[in-house]
Write a structure and sequence with these properties.
With about 250 residues, this protein is an alpha/beta fold. The chain has two domains: about 140 residues, P-loop containing nucleotide triphosphate hydrolases (Rossmann fold, 3-Layer(aba) Sandwich), CATH 3.40.50; about 100 residues, no CATH class. Strands 2-3-4-1-5 form a five-stranded parallel sheet, with helices on both faces. Strand 3, helix 4 and strand 4 form a beta-alpha-beta unit. Helix 9 runs antiparallel to helix 10 and helix 10 packs antiparallel against helix 11. The longest helix has 17 residues.
C-alpha cells in the first residue's frame, strides 16, 4: 500500500533526525489502516524493522471505551514513566480514541501536556474533532489513507463510460472557478440516478488528494468527516458536500 509506505519513509526520517513528537493522532476512513501503521511504528522503534510482529516490551495498547474513566488511564501513566527496555520510546497506543469519555480525555491531556522525555502516545480515530479541543491541539495530526486505491476498488468493476462520468464530475468540482459553479455541479451529482456514483466520486477525490497528503491534509480530513456524516446521519447532503470545498481546505496538485 503506497501511502503506508510513504508514512514509513517519513517517520523513518523523523526518527533518524530525532524529531519525533510526544503525541500523534492518526485519522482517516479506515481504522484497520490506522492501527496497522501505529503498530508498525511501535515495532520500528523497538526492533528497527517496520514488518516485525514479535511481542513488544515497550508498547501498551488500549482499546478505547466510553465507560473508561480516570482510573483506566492510570496504567498508562505508570507505563510511560517506567524506564524503556529496548525501544527508542515507551509507546502507548490508544485505538478508536473517539470512544473515550470526556473524563478519560482530560486525564490523557494531563499526560500529553507533560510527558516524560521517552514517552510517545499514539491515538487513532476516524474523526479527530471528536476529541476535546485541548487534547487535540497538543497532538500532531496525520492522515492515513484508506487501504485501497480508487482504481482498484471502484473503477475496476465499472464500464469506461462510468469512469468518464466520475472523472468529469471530479474535475468539475476541483476546477470550479466560482462557488455557484461548484454548487451546481454538486446538485447535479446528487440528483444522478446511480446509487454508487457519489461514493465513487468521493473515492476519486481522496485518491487525487492523497498524492500530496501533507499539503492536502485539511481537505482530506474534511472529506472523510463530511462523507461519514452523509452516511450516518440525516443531514443535508449538498451542504456537507459543499463544506468539503471551503476556502481553507485548498487542494494542491
Amino acid at each position: 500500500m503506497a501511502d503506508i509506505q510513504a508514512l514509513e519513509n517519513i517517520f523513518s526520517r523523523v526518527i533518524e533526525r530525532n524529531r519525533l513528537s510526544h503525541g500523534y493522532i492518526f485519522f482517516g476512513e479506515s481504522f484497520t489502516a490506522q492501527l496497522k501503521f501505529v503498530q508498525s511504528l511501535a515495532s520500528f522503534l523497538e526492533t528497527n524493522d517496520w514488518k516485525k510482529t514479535t511481542p513488544l516490551f515497550d508498547t501498551f495498547i488500549l482499546s478505547a471505551d466510553k465507560e473508561a474513566g480516570i482510573d483506566a488511564m492510570r496504567p498508562i501513566r505508570s507505563f510511560l514513566w517506567q524506564t524503556k527496555l529496548r525501544a527508542l520510546r515507551r509507546t502507548v497506543i490508544i485505538a478508536e480514541a473517539e470512544r473515550l469519555s470526556v473524563h478519560a480525555q482530560n486525564a490523557l491531556l494531563k499526560i500529553v501536556e507533560d510527558p516524560p522525555s521517552s514517552a510517545l502516545v499514539l491515538f487513532t480515530a476516524k474523526h479527530p474533532e471528536s476529541l476535546i479541543t485541548p487534547l487535540l491541539s497538543r497532538l500532531q495530526k496525520v492522515f492515513v489513507s484508506i487501504p485501497y486505491t480508487y482504481e482498484d476498488e471502484f473503477l475496476s468493476t465499472n464500464t469506461n463510460q462510468e469512469k468518464k462520468i466520475v472523472e468529469t464530475y471530479v474535475n468539475r468540482l476541483f476546477h470550479a472557478q466560482i462557488q455557484k459553479e461548484r454548487s451546481d455541479t454538486i446538485k447535479e451529482l446528487l440528483e444522478e440516478d446511480h446509487p454508487f456514483l457519489v461514493r465513487e466520486c468521493i473515492a476519486s477525490m481522496l485518491d487525487k488528494a492523497r498524492k500530496d497528503p501533507q499539503k492536502n491534509m485539511l481537505f482530506l480530513k474534511e472529506v472523510v468527516y463530511r462523507w461519514a456524516l452523509m452516511q450516518q446521519y440525516n443531514t443535508n447532503r449538498k451542504l456537507q458536500f459543499e463544506a468539503m470545498f471551503l476556502p481553507q481546505n485548498k487542494i494542491y496538485g
